[in-house]
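To close the chapter, one final illustration. This time we ask the reader to focus less on the individual chains and more on the assembly as a whole: which components sit near each other, and how the overall shape emerges from the parts.
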Amino acid sequence: MTESTHARVAEDSAEVVIVGAGPAGLVLANLLLRAGVDCVVLERSGRDDVENRARAGFLAPETVRVLQRHGLDGGLSRRGQQHGVCEFRTVDGRFRLDYERLGKGEPHTVYPQHELVADLLGQYVDAGGRVRFDTEAVSIDDIGGSAPTVTVREADGRTVRWRGRYVAACDGRHGAGRRALPPGAVRRHHRDHGVSWLGLLAEAPPSIDAVGYAVHPRGFAGHMARSADITRYYLQCARGTRPESWTDKDIWDELDLRMRAEEFGPLTRGRVIQRTVIDLESDVLEPLRHGALFLVGDAAALISPSAAKGANLAVLEAEILALALVADLNDGDPEPLTHYSARALDHIWRAQEFSHWMIRLLHAATGTDDAAFQEGLRHSRMASLRTSAGHQDWFAENYVGM
Ligand code: RFL
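The assembled structure is written out below.
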């Protein structure tokens, strides 16, 4: 780099530089700020966008406890709804699991992710936290040393180099954190489940007082409440489907069919306000620390939305990392940081295992030589879930557990 280039790059610093203002980055930022650790959040999008990105909605009890422990549960305590029943619809009829009352079951709290993000952001900013919107991390360097840097491009095109003691990559699977890993430093375990979903948000009240999972010869369909007048639906679709190729009428007709509305009651229709195609993929990076760089949330592991674990893992990992960073920076105890990766990975693999089990329960095996055999196993798995109290207890524990 020439001297004149150096002259144009502004420098700034924070002890912990956090990239990404999703649930992971914002829980981490709030916890660090409260402990008096100097930090900054660098976010590619604008505040409006961050606060309105509808995604997850089911918070596990452990996630709620983490947020309660740190006084970050104001909004969800006031507006979140308790939810403890799911309903499976299959060719053999339907059955309900009152998972809140089974085994070690507890209820979920239904609270839209973007509202949680808005709450976390509000609390952080009100407490004096530093955040830069419209600021994209383009590279993270010197992670092997004690002064890593994050180079960002701001909205006006200005380049700024942030220097910190640590960098937390909370910027998802396509972020700068993953790109900064030197080749060979981290293993990536990846699985493409070969299944795609059309993820939908409808301006319509929930149609069932339960999470609905429909297994149908034409493919999976799902129903999840979000609020009194917004419902998330999923429709399994062919790989490569263009979301706009489905009209609202196509969507509702197909949902009616797969959810067996004729047999079990009509779905309440409304305008479809979001359509996204999601290829069900999972990956885990191992380890989650490389020198001064830590991977958190979707940057650490991508989990398919089949069991609603992604946002929950992000919150849990952020708490583990925050406590470890505070121990290091405030108390001079680096030990907990050395355990961050292993502790987070324990949770991640547990969640991956259950998510994978759900994917195999909800979708027919395709493209394999033994598809008919797999289908027999799937049928038997569903029958066991319908009839075995032990299996139902196991399901309840894993469905809400983190
Ligand atoms: P996020 O929320 O993606 O936030 C990352 C942030 O980083 C920013 N960013 C950058 N900023 C600066 N520089 C860069 N180079 C950057 N690159 C990216 C982004 O703008 C963004 O603001 O990651 P985080 O914090 O790790 O949180 C993960 C969760 O968002 C995710 O796992 C869940 O949404 C997954 N998920 C669900 N999880 C659940 O626990 N329960 C659910 O019910 C649930 N439903 C879902 C979901 C994900 C879905 N999609 C989008 C696949 C439903 C859907 C449709």
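The longest helix spans residues 335-362. Residues 189 and 284 are 5 Å apart (CA to CA). With these observations in hand, you are ready for the problems at the end of the chapter.
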